[in-house]
């Protein structure tokens, strides 16, 4: 589940009728977010909050393509009407029920061949930030899903989508279900921080925590020239990856399918599967289905 979209603020939104009041799901404090995140020498240069848009990723890609947008722009939506995940899957959520945002990065110091680590880096940063700010144990499903445990079952509570923006830019979209209740989940396999027992569902500190964590991890990775080993990213990702150690089915481009045990994430960020034929095959793209729990 990830955010995106081209949109301008709709102005102050009227509370929609329903059992959720503004006290239950208060709006984000845009001025407070800017004060807490935008600072001299820091990564985040601009924080914009819109009431409603189709997709924050689409919006930010379009703005970056128009030129003149510096690294570190953050676009946050209170509600997305056309949010997309990987493979153009749709993801819906009530207004103000989650974190829906995109960021623009320009990792000029890092070879493009290593940019494939950005969704994994973002997963580590989001999981780390939410663990601290919400007190929820999270796990990562390769390559871009955030998992939480609800009633003893793993559920998807968030996702990441990375898109190129021109020759030197990358837009990363993140969506996280924060306050969704059971009867609001889009699919039975979805979850939320609230359902996973979060100690806080206040989205302002959650967003600040995630963005500070992303700034930290991106800085380490960039300083290491994108080297996943030297930056500590590869080891940290593997430690938090729920896919490793499981038998999985990889649905690959071209209607191919591969079944094997996920044994490693290699230096290129690919998932390495050990097949029954005794072959270790790296998977760089595709849909991964967990077949056997750890």
Automatic annotation (TrEMBL):
Query: Which stretches of sequence are listed as region Disordered?
Result: 1-26
Q: Gene3D superfamilies, per this entry?
A: 2.30.30.100, Bira Bifunctional Protein, Domain 2 (3.30.930.10)
EC code(s) of this entry? 6.3.4.15
The BPL/LPL catalytic domain is annotated at 45-222
Question: Would the keyword Ligase turn up in this protein's UniProt record?
Answer: yes
Query: Which GO MF terms are attached to this record?
Result: biotin--[biotin carboxyl-carrier protein] ligase activity
Enzyme class, top EC level, equals ligase
Q: Which domain of life is it from?
A: Bacteria
- Claim: Ligase is one of the keywords in the record: yes
Xref: CDD domains: BPL
Tell me the keywords, alphabetical order. Biotin, Ligase
Protein's name in the database: biotin--[biotin carboxyl-carrier protein] ligase
Q: Which organism is it from?
A: Streptomyces pimonensis
